[in-house]
Write a structure and sequence with these properties.
Elements (H helix, E strand, L loop, with lengths): L11 H20 L8 H28 L2 E10 L2 E9 L13 H11 L7 E8 L3 E8 L2 H9 L13 H10 L7 E9 L11 H9 E7 L6 E2 L9 E2 L2 E2 L1 E2 L3 H10 L3 E4 L5 H14 L4 E9 L1 H20 L7
Parallel strand pairs: 2-3, 2-5, 5-6, 6-11
Antiparallel strand pairs: 1-12, 3-4, 7-10, 8-9
Helix pairs in contact: 1-2, 2-9
Length: about 325
């Protein structure tokens, strides 16, 4: 839902003020017509009151329709003919850690390469992130380009420091082709970095609906020295910098998108991930039932237009041939 539109409800306050001001301005003249028992002012009050209420209700239901409220579920039959797989790799400096041999990044690259299944109905992309993110290989069925892109990843390819998982995932998500006929999977390789993020962005709600997310935890719980791309230990104020796997960040992210989690140290991690790709590939061409929310905004818009019609009807309708 687009909650930002709720701010439009504040328009009701100035609308009420305008209606009250106009009523007080016009009622003085109407009362001068109250002669010989004619109760014009009472009729004017009822008519003006109804017009005000109907217009305010029109604004109220219009805003709710913009918000995109929905309730209930329905199932859409979808025949998926293509499998799109996005590799998202952390290339921050901490991925030079050698607690996973030969290094966290090189091990992640090796696992990603092992997940490439040569098939014309499968497409792959490669996205990297550090302090910022960008797509290295757009979604393609050119497997050699994907392998080449993975082989040439390094921690010095992005100058902005940090571990911005959210930007990496966002960049990969928006790089998916907008095909309803494609099954979408994402494999994220990261050690979590040293910063916590707020994983409540709207795009993560869309990600959860459209993409199967697999997060691979890269690293061990124990501290290791941070190294640069040349393999030299990094020092800060004459002391070596220690790094470790940040499970908290990765678990928080995986939970926010209702995804699956794996440890790269698991001896069977490649077979588990590869089998998930093969199983989805084998389902291509078959009918799948996708659960979707039933949008109700059009009913709210219809109600809003009804109130607008009533407001104008009351405005032009003559009560006892007077107003």
């Amino acid at each position: 839902m687009k909650y930002v539109y709720f701010f439009l409800l504040f328009l009701i306050v100035p609308i009420i003020f305008i209606y009250v001001s106009n009523y007080r301005k016009n009622i003085k003249f109407i009362r001068t017509l109250d002669t010989r028992g004619n109760d014009y002012s009472r009729q004017f009050f009822y008519k003006y009151f109804l017009m005000s209420i109907f217009f305010i209700l029109f604004i109220f239901f219009s805003v709710w329709s913009l918000v995109g409220i929905s309730w209930g579920k329905f199932y859409e039959v979808r025949e998926e003919t293509t499998l799109d797989v996005a590799f998202v790799l952390d290339v921050s400096n901490s991925m030079n850690g050698d607690d996973i041999r030969p290094s966290r990044l090189k091990k992640s690259i090796a696992v990603a390469q092992a997940l490439i299944v040569d098939s014309p109905n499968i497409r792959y992309s490669v996205t990297v992130f550090k302090g910022k993110a960008f797509v290295v290989v757009p979604m393609t069925s050119d497997f050699d380009s994907v392998r080449y892109g993975l082989e040439n990843l390094s921690t010095d390819m992005i100058s902005v420091a940090g571990t911005n998982i959210k930007d990496g995932v966002k960049e990969a998500f928006y790089s998916f082709p907008k095909d309803k006929e494609s099954k979408k999977k994402m494999f994220i390789f990261s050690d979590g970095g040293n910063k916590n993020f707020n994983f409540n962005d709207k795009f993560l709600l869309d990600l959860k609906k459209e993409v199967e997310v697999n997060t691979i935890f890269v690293g061990l719980d124990s501290d290791v020295y941070l190294k640069n791309n040349s393999g030299e230990i990094v020092y800060y104020e004459d002391s070596p910098v220690n790094i470790s796997l940040n499970k908290k960040v990765l678990e928080s992210f995986s939970k926010s998108v209702e995804g699956k989690s794996f440890f790269i140290t698991d001896s069977f991690v490649i077979s588990k991930l590869r089998n998930s790709i093969i199983n989805d590939y084998n389902k291509l061409g078959k009918e799948n039932y996708i659960e979707k929310e039933d949008d109700k905004y059009y009913w709210l818009l219809f109600v809003a237009l009804c109130f607008l019609f009533l407001q104008n009807f009351v405005k032009v309708f003559m009560w006892k041939k007077r107003f």
